From TrEMBL:
GO CC aspect terms: plasma membrane
Entry keywords, A to Z: ATP-binding, Nucleotide-binding
Protein name: Methionine ABC transporter ATP-binding protein
Keyword Nucleotide-binding recorded: yes
Superkingdom of source: Bacteria
Entries under SMART domains matching the protein: AAA
GO molecular function terms attached to this record: ATP binding; ATP hydrolysis activity; transmembrane transporter activity
Species, as recorded: Ruegeria marisrubri
PROSITE patterns given in the database record: ABC_TRANSPORTER_1, ABC_TRANSPORTER_2
Record-annotated ABC transporter domain positions: 15-240
Pfam families assigned to the protein according to its UniProt record, in alphabetical order: ABC_tran
Family matches, as InterPro entries: AAA+_ATPase, ABC_transporter-like_ATP-bd, ABC_transporter-like_CS, ABC_transpr_LolD-like, P-loop_NTPase
Length: 241
């Protein structure tokens, strides 16, 4: 497990953050990050305890929130200069997100869920010649039975199946960066290993960069690099569990 910083070459970075300061409004929690870089194609695990600020850091990287000061570059683009609309568009184009609770549309089928990001991202849409076929191929590659993907509402799928749909939705249109927020937290060790295999396969095929956050240190040897949140950020105003 390598705790070292990635080399400081801007052209090779998918994500670069420096001198970040951020506070949530109406909350005592604040964080600072002096330097954080993720190389293109790297698979990085961000480890940290509950309440330490992992999701907050992901929100900053995804441009969901803006830092009070500092610079965040994603796929070569400075986020802090952009309007909310342009940040949203950049996120849709460049980042596929896998949420902890999957966040699928419950009444839509799996294939409809997988296609959702293409509605918000012209860049990812142009990479799909036949979007529905590509969504079905992704679902098949992730081991989802065809009839389940086309005929059932997502709410009828098991947690493990919903998780695979969430991966396919993140991967459609091959975004440059995949961000996964604790996607294995509800899984036993065997299912966790299977999930990581499927995710890594897809990430390798798309040539994407992967940042996954977790509190599970057992995952560390699967990744190119592991960063402990406590080595990266200084927080105040919160007691970490
Ligand atoms: N929308 C918000 N508004 C105000 N405070 C928030 C908000 N989201 C998170 N916080 C606060 O920021 C701190 C860090 O939360 P965050 O969710 O980033 O931690 P985490 O490491 O992802 O935790 P977990 O592993 O439990 O998901 C917490 O004290 C939390 O209360």
């Amino acid at each position: 497990m390598d705790h070292g910083a990635a080399p400081a070459q801007p052209d090779t970075c998918a994500i670069e953050a420096s001198d970040i300061r951020f506070s949530w409004p109406n909350s005592a929690f604040s964080m600072t990050v002096s330097e954080f870089r993720v190389q293109r194609g790297e698979k990085l695990l961000l480890l940290g305890e509950s309440g330490g600020g992992k999701s907050t850091l992901l929100s900053l990287i995804c441009g969901v929130v803006s830092p009070d000061q500092g610079s965040i570059r994603v796929a070569g683009q400075e986020l802090t200069n952009l309007s909310t609309f342009r940040r949203d568009r950049l996120r849709a184009n460049k980042i596929g997100v896998i949420f902890q609770m999957f966040n699928l549309l419950p009444y839509a089928s799996a294939v409809e869920n997988i296609l959702v990001p293409l509605c918000f991202s012209p860049e990812r849409r142009t990479r799909c010649t036949t979007p529905r076929d590509e969504a079905l191929e992704l679902a098949a590659a992730l081991g989802l039975p065809r009839n389940l993907v086309t005929d059932e509402p997502a709410s009828n799928l098991s947690a493990g199946q919903q998780q695979r749909v969430a991966v396919a939705r993140a991967m459609i249109g091959r975004p440059e960066i995949i961000v996964a927020d604790e996607p294995t937290s509800a899984l036993d060790k065997k299912s966790q290993a299977e999930f990581i295999d499927l995710l890594f396969d897809q990430v390798a095929q798309a040539g994407s960069t992967l940042i996954m956050v977790s509190h599970d240190e057992r995952l560390a040897d699967r990744f190119d690099r592991t960063v402990q949140l406590s080595d990266l950020v200084v927080t105040s105003g919160v007691a970490v569990a």
